[in-house]
Amino acid sequence: MEIFSAILHAAPGLLDLGVIVGMIVGTAVGIAVGALPGLSATMGIAVLIPLTFTMEPLVALGMIAGIYNGSMYGGSIPAILLRIPGTPAGIATVFDGHEMARQGKARLALDISLVSSSLGSAVSAVALLLLAPPLALIALKFSPANYFWLAVFGMTTIAIMLAGNPAKGILSACFGLCLGIVGIDPISGNERFTFGTVEFLSGIHIVVLLTGLYAIPPAIDLMLGRNSIEAGNIDLGEKSTGFRWASLIPTWVRASGIGLVVGLIPALGGNIAALLAWQEERRYSKNKENWGKGEPAGLAAPECANNADTAATLIPALTLGIPGNAVAAVVLGALLVHGLRPGPELFSANADITYGFMLTMLVTSGLMFLIGKLGARAYVNVLRVPRQLLGPIILALTVVGVYAIHNSIFEVALMLCFGLIGFAMERMEIPTAPAVLAVILGPIAEENLRRALLISGDDFSYLLRGPISIVLALLVLGALVSPWLPKLKASFGRTARESEEGQ
């Protein structure tokens, strides 16, 4: 009952004109960002955060919710029409969506994608509203040692699972940890790694890092002519009538469930949810031979699943500080910018804003349907925008936004440096999400580790007292060992075969 009371108390905040405009603008921009290959929700939010610095928290978070939801649907537009996924989660959409477009059913394909995306986002938002508060209550019982292991687990899982090469993921996390300790020591108050520079006393601002790592590299790619496409004359085809929408209901139910489960597991993300949903739905289908040839359920399943993943990734992010993917990590940065610290206190100290943000995730799922339906042809025209113009526009917005934070040219230069580092990391296939997460979780891990040692009198065994600490420590160990398990299994298999042959 307390959850519903908190929701009812926060709901009137969404009637504010600024919040309504923010959600509409965010959703419209999100669809456009998703529709442009090479751009992503992560980049869109990273560019937006500096521009929302002076806004009311709920207005800014409403815009971010709109971009997050809208971009997930927007990625299906180029996937269906041009066979180019607008976002990584749009890969599975290509399989049947583009085939439908080739058969003259592009309008129907876009409609299926829109309805599936809206339903998936709505289900995910409801799950966020109902599951996040109970999880926050559990987190309130955590000790400093528990929080230390939780922060380490979050960094470890993202570093290991987001990288094809675990060593590169850990390297990225270590880079973030180094950045996170710049500034004033939270326990002793001493300066650390400021190099005598006043600008470093307050540490490295999370927006400067986010904007540099996520907004600058795509802008450079666009200016260099990468990610460019030839849209040509896109034809949506005639309106399709007589389609049996009820036939997709079982697909939506199964795909929503898959998206929710995947969203709750750190580091998997919408692309995994989409591919799993496509594969599972194909397994249920009686017409497996039609899959990959324009099967409507093959389009509905991945689109519903990757949108059901969106708000679900925020459940561990808001309650425990462990984001499910790179976008959720950027959203955590947005919360910190507006004075909201992820964790169980978020649901008590800032209840109206927190529940209001979760409600905007639900409202923008409906706005996504309305805006996508009314502006389908306009968003198709977005594909014709010259990519060489987009790069300088994005770069200009990032410079203006970062400068507006503290009116500091130093921070603009620092952001550009991080942009070049991010560009180099992408070229070397080093993920940037672990670095961002380490900047957020690193100080939390350090502070709670030192607090735990102060409480215990420097007794390190205190870190493994209690079942929660032991379970979290085992999970960290499991995450570190998991990349090498297949190799160990193969090695044992070879040894067993060799011993059998020797006998």
Automatic annotation (TrEMBL):
The keyword Membrane applies. Pfam families: TctA. Keywords: Membrane, Transmembrane, Transmembrane helix. The keyword Glycoprotein does not apply. It comes from the Bacteria. The chain crosses the membrane at residues 6-33, 45-68, 119-140, 147-164, 170-188, 200-220, 257-278, 322-341, 353-376, 388-406, 462-485. Residues 21-437 form the DUF112 domain. This is Membrane protein.
